[in-house]
Specification:
It is a single chain. The strands form five sheets. Strands 3-4-5 form a three-stranded antiparallel sheet. It contains five helices and 13 strands. 20% of the residues lie in helices and 30% in strands. Strand 1 and strand 2 form a beta hairpin. It has helices spanning 23-30, 69-75, 84-92, 131-137, 170-174; strands at 2-3, 6-7, 16-20, 44-49, 63-68, 80-82, 96-99, 108-112, 115-117, 143-145, 148-154, 160-164, 178-181. It folds into two domains: 2-75, no CATH class; 80-181, no CATH class. By secondary structure, it is α+β, with helices and mostly antiparallel strands. The mean pLDDT is 91.
């Protein structure tokens, strides 16, 4: 990345779909002629960026490009078997995450962005501080909620429960069994 003439080292986190496709087939797909100095038999992937970038092909929803297998294998990991850090980045992009090793089935975690709500006494708005919160902060106080993680879990009676402010355990943070939930 170049900014003000200065190179910067960067690391990227993107959600992509990889479709196996050699270089020649990718050029045919795009309606391009294979450059004379490129090997059409190079194995690789059509890479479709699912989380940003305007589509550059009317047949796809995301921006597409081509990548050799070795480059893609170093840059991308499947959405199962993720480290905690990659799972957190996925959650911050709006995806549900979970650990394969969790005992409760159907449990998952999401990132909740911050928000500001008008006070409980505000008139004419659908979104405002609720009465339970106003009891503690006052009916005329607006509420700023900082970002947090929330978990859809199973409580001790086996019922589903929403857990705002979920915190990862040491085991959660050191596990590589995180996955993106569709």
């Amino acid at each position: 990345m170049i900014m003000n003439g200065q190179k910067k080292k960067c690391i990227g986190v993107k959600l992509v779909e990889l479709t196996p496709m050699n270089r020649a087939d990718y050029n045919v797909y795009r309606g391009w002629e294979l450059p004379a100095d490129e090997d059409g038999t190079d194995e690789g992937y059509l890479v479709e960026y699912m989380d940003g970038g305007q589509a550059n092909d009317s047949r796809r929803k995301g921006y597409i490009s081509w990548s050799p297998i070795a480059v893609a294998d170093k840059a991308y990991r499947e959405t199962s078997g993720l480290s905690f850090g990659l799972a957190i980045e996925a959650a911050k992009k709006g995806l549900k995450i979970a650990r394969k090793g969790w005992n409760g089935k159907g449990m998952w975690v999401v990132f909740m962005s911050g928000m500001i709500l008008p006070s409980f006494n505000t008139q004419g708005t659908d979104r405002k501080v609720n009465d339970r919160t106003a009891k503690w902060i006052g009916p005329d106080t607006p509420l700023e909620t900082l970002p947090y993680f929330a978990m859809w879990t199973v409580n001790s009676e086996g019922r589903r429960a929403w857990l705002p402010g979920w915190l990862a355990s040491q085991t959660d943070m050191l596990s590589d069994d995180w996955m993106v939930i569709e």
